[in-house]
Amino acid sequence: MEIKKKEFLNLKQGNMTFMEFMERFNYLGRYVAADMNTEAKKVELCRDRLAPELNHAITAHEITSMKSLVEKALRVESSEKEVVEDRKRKWAAKKFASGSSSTRPHLAPSPVVRPMAPQPPRQMYVPPRPQTQIVRQVPRTVQAAGDASRNDNVACYNCGKKEHYSPNCPYPKTGKSGPHTQGAPQRRNVADEFAEHLPTWKVLG
């Protein structure tokens, strides 16, 4: 019994609701019935153990009975709950609005496309062509005419006639040196004879 009495003396509302506190208050109050033999004492003991916020809220009202105390306390507690719930709703709405604005995707600015400067045309490398050596060709008719004119001035050393050499002479060997030799006879071979009549220029055919 003494334990319950001490428990009643140490009773505080704390985090309990008003109805939870009243159930505990009435249960332990049976062990201190002598201290609550009047309605005024019972109201006084109950108010002393209420939460400070609730006790301050009901101070403005005149309370003479436990019934009046319970009605006023429940009314204040209900009003405080509404205020708390309203604050929670406003805070949740504000948090949602700030969260949605922060998570809204930001559109990146489109990149600026700059026109490219015109590139100069590339020069194609053309390898140099090999120079061809141009050999001036003289028509064969000119060469043949030159040979014919040269043969006209040739005199055979055997017969003295023109237009052929002594090796090609159709006449028998006479031992003469030809019409151009005067004085002492000179012996000439065929190589010397050909060398004398070699041309001084040559045309490439």
Structural summary, described in words:
Helix content is 46%, strand content 0%. With 205 residues, it is mainly alpha-helical. It has a domain at 1-98. Residues 178-185 have low confidence and may be disordered.
Poorly predicted sequence stretches spanning 5 or more consecutive residues: 178-185
Radius of gyration: 75 Å
**Total strand segments:** 0
* Overall shape: rod-shaped
Q: Which class do the helix and strand fractions yield?
A: mainly alpha
Total of DSSP H or I helical runs spanning 4+ residues: 7
The average pLDDT is 75
State the helical fraction.
Answer: 40-55%
Strand content: under 5%
Name the helix and strand elements from N-terminus to C-terminus, one letter apiece: HHHHHHH
Q: In whole angstroms, how far apart are the ends?
A: 155 Å
Sketch the major β-sheet. Answer: none
Write a brief structural summary.
Residues 94-127, 167-187 are annotated as: Disordered. The protein has 205 residues and is mostly helical. The chain has helices spanning 2-9, 18-29, 39-48, 52-57, 66-103, 140-152, 190-196.
Fill in the keyword field for this structure.
205 residues; mainly alpha; 7 helices; 46% helix; rod-shaped
